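Batch manifest line 156
LIGAND: FE2/S2 (inorganic) cluster
JOB: complex structure
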Amino acid sequence: MKEISKEAREKIKNLFSRYPDKRSSLLEVLHILQDDWGYIEEEDEEKIAELLDMNPVNVHEVVTFYTMYYRRPVGRYVIKVCRNLTCTLMGGETIINYLRKKLKVELGNTSSDGKFTLEAVECLGACELAPVMEINGEFYGHLTPEKIDKVIEELK
Ligand code: FES
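JOB STATUS: finished
ARTIFACT:
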């Protein structure tokens, strides 16, 4: 089981003072721990539940519901490409296939150099930018293969 770093513990402690009860801070605590550990696996859920005085089942439900929490090690850059309706209508499938070929990685996997994890996700809430992808929290819209080349080059 992973240990929580001193820095993460401090951040969590400060967070608790901003919520009426510990359990209300769950989403933010998960972000802090994910930054600390890289990902949240099933065996971590009990420790998190203990920390927040809640049932591990509830932690599990939240971690598995949101795609922003990783269940296994991921690359330095996590590329989330939208596969929902608007993006698909605007060429999202071509974009996904282009990324697969360019990075030589299948959906749900990480490139052999450990740099890029590629995921297809549901609506990113930025439909006006379709087709769109998000990389480590930053959005890139109106994607074309040329735009992708430029973005990936900058990240390398
Ligand atoms: S459908 Fe792609 S961001 Fe909404």
